[in-house]
Amino acid sequence: MVQLPLFEPEPGVLADDEWGRFTHRPGLVPRATARRWFEQLREQVGWNAERRWMYDRQVDVPRLTARFRLQPAPDQPSPPAAVLQAYERVIAETGVSFDSVGLNLYRDGRDSVAPHNDHLDEIAPGFPIALLSLGATRRMIIRAKPPRRRVMQVDLEEGSLLLMSYETQLHYTHGVPKTNEPVGERISLAFRVKPRDEALAQRASGRDRY
């Protein structure tokens, strides 16, 4: 397993080649601000406990979730103020006008997300995914698909931003594994740009997967 240094050859760049670009920015949000956003979201968001089919049976999703449109239709609720403030900070850092955000609440070390890549029909081609972390630090495992098999481990600290280019979803998986170590609650905000035709269809139907 290869754990790449975070600050070589360019500060914050984990990988940057034809397989895609990962950058990690610790301390993007000051700790006091990140803590305030965490507390507001923990209390104000209507968190969902989801179930999904896996291996011919329904299982609990090992985390709580929520989803918001960042430019909601008139009949849709506006995101909490903390989400909009985080959105402004992420735009200032990336220059990307994301239009949706998915939130995950990891309650303890038993909560996790399995290795995966985003479904390509649910993200707009050419646009990155920005992952802002609040609360306790959790480790993300980024693993290249064959033939490279490169593995990167990134500790997602409070107030940090991980930016994944569109191409990374073709060539890598990413996940947050369970841990037996004592760990506090964590909230992640995953900012995405939805495909335009899907965004229009979702607004018309009132459904929203992110």
Fold and architecture overview:
The two termini are 33 Å apart. This protein has helices spanning 31-44, 81-94, 168-171, 196-205, and strands spanning 13-17, 20-25, 51-54, 57-60, 64-69, 100-106, 113-116, 129-135, 138-144, 151-156, 161-164, 172-176, 186-192. With 210 residues, the chain is α+β, with helices and mostly antiparallel strands. A hairpin with a 6-residue loop joins strand 9 and strand 10. It has a 7-stranded antiparallel sheet. The protein has a 4-stranded antiparallel sheet with strand order 7-12-9-10. The protein is built from 4 helices and 13 strands. The protein is globular. 31% of the residues are buried. It has one domain (13-111, 127-205): Jelly Rolls, CATH 2.60.120.590.
Low-confidence stretches: 1-8, 203-210
Strand content: 25-35%
Q: Give the CATH class.
A: Mainly Beta
Instruction: Please summarize the sheet with the most strands.
Output: 7 strands, antiparallel
CATH overall fold name: Jelly Rolls
- Count the strands? 13
Series of H and E elements: EEHEEEHEEEEEEHEEH
> Please, how many helices?
4
Share of helical residues: 10-25%
End-to-end distance: 33 Å
Question: Strands, helices and their partners?
Answer:
Layout: E1 13-17, E2 20-25, H1 31-44, E3 51-54, E4 57-60, E5 64-69, H2 81-94, E6 100-106, E7 113-116, E8 129-135, E9 138-144, E10 151-156, E11 161-164, H3 168-171, E12 172-176, E13 186-192, H4 196-205
